Amino acid sequence: MAAWEGPGSLFLLCVAAAAALCLSRATAAIEPLAGAFGAGHGPASLPAAAARSRRYLLYDVNPPEGFNLRRDVYIRIASLLKTLLKNEAWVLVLPPWGRLYHWQSPDIDQVRIPWSDFFDLPSLSKNIPVIEYEQFLAESGGPFIEQIYLLQSYAEGWKEGTWEEKIDERPCVDQLMYSKDKHEYYRGWFWGYEETRGLGVSCLSVQGSASIIAPVLLKNTSARSVMLDRAENLLHDHYGGRDYWNTRRSMVFAKHLRVVGDEFRGKYLGSTDEMDKTEYNEDWEKMKVKLGTTVGGPYLGVHLRRKDFIWGHRDDVPSLQGAVKKIRSLMKMYNLERVFVATDSDELKKILPEMVRFEPTWEELEIYKDGGIAIIDQWICAHARYFIGTSVSTFSFRIHEEREILGFDPKTTYNRFCGDKEKNCEQPTHWKIVY
Ligand SMILES: Nc1nc2c(ncn2[C@@H]2O[C@H](COP(=O)(O)OP(=O)(O)OP(=O)(O)O)[C@@H](O)[C@H]2O)c(=O)[nH]1
Ligand SMILES: *[C@@H]1O[C@H](CO)[C@@H](O)[C@H](O)[C@H]1NC(C)=O
User: Fold this and answer.
1) For residue 12, how far is the Cα from the chain centroid?
2) Could you give the CA distance from residue 403 to residue 397 in angstroms, rounded to a whole number?
């Protein structure tokens, strides 16, 4: 109990009695704080009174989804948060990382990972107010989430040709991943925080973009903390628009990871920002490089996704020999002597011995974790003179965006390997950055 004592003394009184009642009374005191907490205010600058009255948005994503799709869901939720902020003071609670299917390195603890291990929090805060889960526990009064909405699609599906945005409370379609304990609290997977409990769970069928749920959060519930589970069911408010890019630009990688990537470039790839004349500003709001002006380091950047992609997307993924052939031809064409490869398999090295790879020591892996190593790989690929990725890999898509932000010529970015027998090898779409 000690973990959540303190500011939330009200909760202590409530636990034994009808908690939900106590909580709804507590939330009735919320005063609308319109304008008092717009985007741009870091959470640290909040006066205590405002911190007490703001509402908390939490979310989670379908467990099998990978790191890079989750980064995309963050952008959708950030857009929802901006909509909420037009009416009330809300803060986004960053869902701790962990238990991801791809993060399989043995013997390292990979749950309850805070966002600051991977991203620069002050940068995120310049876009929307965010706090880590631990801060939520400290300031909201305990490990309780008042209302959980499980998002699902409509049981009846949607009739072809009649797309409409809608949201309704509906019976849960799938078996609930939450179960009631003997105190009537909901237990479930809360990012590895076993003491966290939910007070209410209901299912919402949803078909539409993220902000469609804003009226529900503002009007249908007075819960102070609301979690949207299976948040990937919400679509983008406006994919590729200015708001999308602002959020994307605010997702600056944590400095310690960028530093490791930069040192590696300097040491093994003959590439530094000075030598490459790359303009970089840590402050994403000041980062606005004209497309096509960035040259990058003297190496080819490759992302070759293997593992589950070999059986998942057969036609559009090359054989190893096919990939090596393409790599060698690109090196020749762009007159590059070095090639950096980011990949989730060890197979390529055997037939491309000259390739450079970031191979962490055990200690590095323990510190940066699988997610951090993936980011270092992405950062190095993002600085290559020419990049080629894997078809429909969100890992590759995130590299495209990083290069778009850095100001590379789209021709050097939106490229992918073709399957050996692929007839119509369509190249990735250029999503032009909007400021
Ligand atoms: N370090 C490193 N990890 C990789 C690489 N490729 C894939 N991975 C790991 O495998 C995961 C791939 O899953 P995602 O991040 O979802 O990206 P994706 O390639 O689109 O895969 P799916 O979304 O599962 O279809 C990454 O998060 C990494 O953990 C790579 O080149 N380098
Ligand atoms: C929200 O409340 C309105 C008005 O009471 C109601 O019509 C609507 O169905 C509710 N929506 C959800 C998703 O519960």
Assistant:
1) 34
2) 10
